[in-house]
Specification:
Layout lengths: L2 E5 L53 H6 L3 E5 L8 H5 L5 E4 L9 H6 L5 E4 L9 H7 L2 E4 L5 H16 L2 H9 L5 H5 L9 E5 L3 H10 L5 E5 L6 H7 L1 E4 L2 H5 L4 E4 L13 H6 L4 E5 L8 H10 L2 E6 L19 E3 L8 H19 L9 E4 L2 E2 L1 H6 L20
Parallel strand pairs: 1-2, 1-3, 3-4, 4-5, 6-7, 6-9, 7-8, 9-10, 10-11, 11-12
Antiparallel strand pairs: 5-13, 13-14
The structure holds NADPH dihydro-nicotinamide-adenine-dinucleotide phosphate (NDP).
The site of NADPH dihydro-nicotinamide-adenine-dinucleotide phosphate has 34 residues, from helix 5, helix 8 and helix 14.
Amino acid sequence: MAKVLCVLYDDPVDGYPKSYARDGVPKLDHYPGGQTLPTPKSVDFKPGELLGSVSGGLGLRKFLEDAGHTFVVTSDKDGPNSVFERELPDADVVISQPFWPAYLTEDRIRKAKKLKLAITAGIGSDHVDLEAAAERGITVAEITYSNSISVSEHVVMMILALVRNYIPSCGWVVRGGWNIADCVERAYDLEGMTVGTVGAGRIGLAVLKRLKPFDVKLHYTDRHRLSADVERELGLTYHKSVEDMVKVCDVVTINAPLHPETEHLFNDKLIAKMKRGAYLVNTARGKICDRDAVVRALESGQLAGYAGDVWFPQPAPQDHPWRTMPHHGMTPHVSGTTLSAQARYAAGTREILECFLAGKPIREEYLIVDKGKLAGAGAHSYSEGDATKGSEEASRYKKSA
Ligand code: NDP
């Protein structure tokens, strides 16, 4: 029998929901490009329920406990005295979501003597030291595509929110004002601007497709070039390097994974190459940007705005400067955990567990590390190494109501 240790974010401060704003979520047939949605034998939840918080348990409790497995769910994940670290030594499987990541550092992997499988309920497994996992023969898998479209919608929303100065304008009404000039002194149209994405994979390509009707000029950089047909259909300009691309962009959106190649990619030097007054939207991973370089660029006006939902570490301590820097549109890490997305990645987590517990292979497209090396989606999009350094800072976050 297996012990499954699952780290999820806390329930809402007012308690687990008793009702929802809507009665369900649309049922999708397949992802763009044809990949099928998760195919577990069954699920024990109603799509549209809150599954990613502790009481939701990703809808896995009945399935695991009925089969005699042990299922431990906690939100207490940081520091040596956390429930996560106490429960880790005899866990066979760890499940965690990028929104509230259970950092699996080399040190923790050493303590997790029985660990065979680390599942990312979502996309982005940079919270796991992939090098250490590979050395130990631990399989790392994620639910590829489960929330890619969710994030792409968020990116478009954030680009518009920054360019049109939406958040401060909303703030004026809440404060009882009607200060049109204050709202519009930083407001522009997106039409005609040049928008570039770093990474044109599932999310990046979906962002480009969604922005096409806005009559913007679309650019991208990626390690692999898209097909000539896609480039023609969307009118894309390809750049071999990110440096070349950012020089011409009014808006840059980051949609690449965090791995040693992209860690701190947006530092003072690269940001200085951007157009003055450019906007930067990062829903990929906080650590792809140099934290203080972003603050400096917003303060100097080199960047007109920065938005995203990803931070490093997570949760961000209360004194993280991105909470208070000027002209930002930051949220906690939420773009990939809408109720719609949760239904998909909870089902995908169940599919992976069903395969693992039955000794069957996990879908190739879900694999990041397997049999001692990068595999599946991981082999395509990541580079070898570890991006978890500094994650212990997350223990400085203090819960608030
Ligand atoms: P994909 O793997 O489909 O796409 C990632 C793309 O980035 C690939 O095309 C990859 O290139 C490219 N890439 C990798 N390294 C570089 C580099 N150095 N320079 C330029 N491009 C690069 O993943 P998704 O689009 O589904 O997700 C992307 C990332 O978004 C995830 O890894 C995750 O970190 C983040 N994410 C955030 C979420 C949120 O809630 N905020 C939710 C889901 C994902 P290639 O494969 O061609 O080598």
